[in-house]
Amino acid sequence: MSLSALRVAIIVFPGSNCDRDMMVAVERLAGRRPALVWHKETSLDPVDLAIIPGGFSYGDYLRCGALAARSPIMEAVLDHAARGGAVMGICNGFQVLLEAGLLPGVLVENAGLKYVCRNTCIEVVDGTGSPFTAGLVPGQKMVIPVAHNEGNYFAGDDDLQRLEDNGQIAFRYVDSDIHGPANPNGAARDIAGIISANGRVMGMMPHPERAISPELGSADGATMLTASLEALVS
Amino acid sequence: MQVIVNISLKEGVLDPQGRAIGRSLTDLGFQEVGEVRVGKRISLDIDESDPARAEQRVARMCETLLANTVIEDYEIEIAGENGA
After folding, report:
1. pLDDT value, residue B83
2. Average pLDDT over all residues of chain A
3. Catalytic machinery residues of A
4. Where are the alpha helices (DSSP H) in chain A?
5. CATH number for the domain including A92?
6. Which residue of B has its CA nearest to A106?
7. Could you report the predicted ipTM of this complex, rounded to two decimals?
8. CA angle, corner A186, sides to A225 and A90, nearest 5?
9. Which residues contact A132 (CB under 8 A, 6 or more apart)?
10. In this complex, do A108 and B71 lie within 8 Å of one another by their Cβ atoms?
11. What percent of chain A has pLDDT over 90?
């Protein structure tokens, strides 16, 4: 199967604002435009990858991602994941995946109490168990921007240890020459992204779709997304 | 029937907002202030006359949506009949 045969759906909630950026990124990298699926839909056509994009779904009311996680389309996304389907959540999408129970833990307010919008350097931790890291090399560093107020990953000590032991930490914030502290939000164990126990669900705070060409400051997001798309077709 | 849900952060979960409020209170001269924790109060109008049943339903709502039990605790308070 070639990359352009890959079927990708991007779920759109009221308040999503990175859906179009992600659509453009995937179309550019895979050669096929993903479907945009409105949250009121109750079914999902068969797809190889469902993406929950960044934004401020439902205005972040109650808790970030809480209302989106219970909207009609999420039943179909949960079914897709239960069948072993691949799901990727970026930023608010990561918050939605946690609220939906597809990944463990929760994202709370940044330790610095401020919205953080800047480049971060993340390092690939797990290199094998998941299509989202399989094409990357453990220790590989990527410059990808974050833009969030609630990116401070929190989980109980038992859950954190389980993530470490099972190789479920996908990406960690690391030191680099980028201005500011390596960890932008106080996340436990410098976690920037995690994967599910079966490797098929991945959530991350940094925005790879905002780093797809040198003109945008970095093309590392394109490297990361292409590696994921290629792993999903092979 | 009116039901009040009080949602608070679990012990041990960092509350950056509470910490900032605490710091401001100290700056304003309220030296007696120690730890500050911020919570949420949700008031629900429920079409139900049996308090026990109302409490049971609201507990389900808390578990399903209103609270994230990874970091939050909830308390349910039956406030009484509407208009009573």
Report:
1. 47
2. 96
3. 91, 207
4. 19-30, 73-82, 92-99, 157-165, 220-233
5. 3.40.50.880
6. B70
7. 0.84
8. 25
9. A86, A88, A170, A195, A199, A202, A228, A231
10. yes
11. 95
Mean predicted lDDT score pLDDT of chain B: 93
Nearest CA-CA partner of A111 in B60, B13, B84: B13
Is residue A77 within 8 Å of A119, Cβ to Cβ? no
Query: Which CATH code is given to the segment(s) B2-80?
Result: 3.30.1280.10
Nearest CB to B16; choose among A70, A99, A111: A111
Interface of A with B (CB under 8 A): 62-63, 66-67, 70, 99, 105-106, 108-113, 152, 154-156, 186
Q: What is the pLDDT of residue B84?
A: 44
Q: List the single best residue of A61, A62, A159 to mutate versus B (max B Cβ within 10 A).
A: A62
Range of the domain at A157: 3-233
CB contact under 8 A, B65 and A105: no
| pLDDT number for residue B81 | 66
Inter-chain CB proximity B64 and A70 less than 8 Å? yes
Q: Which of A179, A163, A228 is nearest to A3 (CA)?
A: A228
Q: How many domains does the structure of chain A reveal? A: 1
Q: What is the pLDDT of residue B12?
A: 86
pLDDT digit string (tens) for A98-152? 999 999 999 999 999 899 999 999 999 976 789 999 999 999 999 999 999 999 9
Instruction: Please answer yes or no on whether A62 and B70 come within 8 Å at the CB atom.
Output: no
Please tell me which residue of chain B has the smallest CA distance to A64: B68
Chain B residues near residue A62 by CB distance under 8 angstroms: 65-66
For chain B, the structural domain boundaries read 2-80
